């Protein structure tokens, strides 16, 4: 379906976008990601590619990054919105083809080191927490490990708070937020630092090759991890 992408792309990003959009991936097959999902991406980068590809298949996709990224991502969203708009039908009464749109893909500034993670980030009045948080290729600097993991914890904690709120749409049976982290392995020390910090707060799984797409499988050093917040991490 794509379209126009301005700006830098990291190698792993299109592969993760393609994988997460595919109906047959294990995350979709097991209901972790579905058409009703409300998703936030941390450090989406200037392209916002994952949101542009995956967002139209979900209920809401919130791209976040530092504020300098806003003008680039918003340009990509608006240019692709124009490309994806369904063509006006010639026959008055005939149904328009169902074309995925980017109306539910939004950008919000969120700096892990400066900003608070709040329920308002969903951009939806009636929804106060996320089903999934995604971070792709965001682990490249030791100083960012702790703030990135903290932001992941804070997003996942919103679901737990939401469950306890009266009149919330989040029922006690609503699943915990799942954190999906894609990474191209570069510096082993930085990656070790991240996994140690992440594992302190999250029960963590690495997706094995058998459940990855052929392109991810055949790219040595590209890894996807999933995490679910430990009960002991709830403060
Ligand atoms: C290597 S890029 C990856 C971008 C994107 N996820 C992708 O896969 O194309 C890392 C991203 O992390 C963002 N980032 C770095 N520090 C951040 C912070 N403190 N808060 C939010 N985002 C940050 C950068 O702005 C950049 O967009």
Polypeptide structure, described:
By secondary structure, this protein is an alpha/beta fold. Helix content is 32%, strand content 17%. The protein contains 7 helices and 7 strands, in the order H-H-E-H-E-H-E-E-H-E-H-E-H-E. It has helices spanning 12-21, 26-29, 49-54, 70-84, 142-164, 188-201, 214-217, and strands at 38-42, 60-65, 105-109, 132-136, 178-184, 202-206, 222-229. A 7-stranded mixed β-sheet has the order 3-2-1-4-5-7-6, with helices on both faces. Helix 5 runs parallel beside helix 6 (188-201). The radius of gyration is 18 Å and the shape is globular. The termini are far apart.
What percent of residues adopt helix (DSSP H or I)? 25-40%
Name the beta content range. 15-25%
Number of β-strand runs: 7
Mean pLDDT: 90
Give the SSE order as H and E letters. Answer: HHEHEHEEHEHEHE
Q: Any idea what the radius of gyration is?
A: 18 Å
pLDDT below 50 for ≥5 consecutive residues: which ranges? none
**SS content category:** alpha/beta
Bound molecules: S-adenosylmethionine
User: End-to-end span in angstroms?
Assistant: 43 Å
Identify the overall geometry.
Answer: globular
The largest β sheet comes out as:
7 strands, mixed
What is the number of helices? 7
Q: What spatial order of strands do you see in the largest sheet?
A: 3-2-1-4-5-7-6
């Amino acid at each position: 379906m794509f379209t126009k992408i301005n700006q830098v792309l990291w190698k792993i990003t299109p592969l993760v976008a393609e994988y997460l959009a595919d109906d047959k991936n294990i995350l979709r097959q097991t209901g972790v990601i579905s058409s009703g999902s409300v998703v936030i991406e941390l450090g989406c980068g200037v392209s916002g590619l994952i949101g542009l590809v995956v967002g139209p298949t979900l209920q809401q996709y919130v791209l976040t990054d530092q504020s300098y990224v806003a003008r680039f991502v918003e340009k990509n969203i608006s240019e692709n919105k124009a490309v994806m708009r369904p063509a006006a039908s010639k026959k008055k009464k005939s149904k328009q083809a169902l074309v995925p749109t980017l109306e539910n893909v939004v950008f919000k500034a969120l700096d892990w080191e400066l900003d608070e993670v709040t329920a308002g980030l969903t951009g939806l009045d009636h929804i106060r927490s996320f089903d999934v948080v995604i971070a792709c290729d965001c682990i490249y600097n030791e100083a960012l490990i702790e703030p990135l993991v903290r932001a992941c914890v804070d997003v996942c904690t919103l679901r737990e708070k939401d469950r306890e709120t009266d009149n919330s749409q989040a029922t006690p049976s609503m699943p915990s937020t799942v954190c999906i982290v894609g990474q191209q392995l570069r510096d082993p020390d930085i990656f070790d630092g991240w996994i140690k910090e992440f594992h302190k707060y999250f029960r963590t799984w690495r997706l094995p090759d058998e459940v990855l797409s052929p392109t991810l499988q055949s790219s040595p050093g590209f890894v996807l991890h999933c995490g679910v917040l430990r009960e002991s991490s709830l403060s």
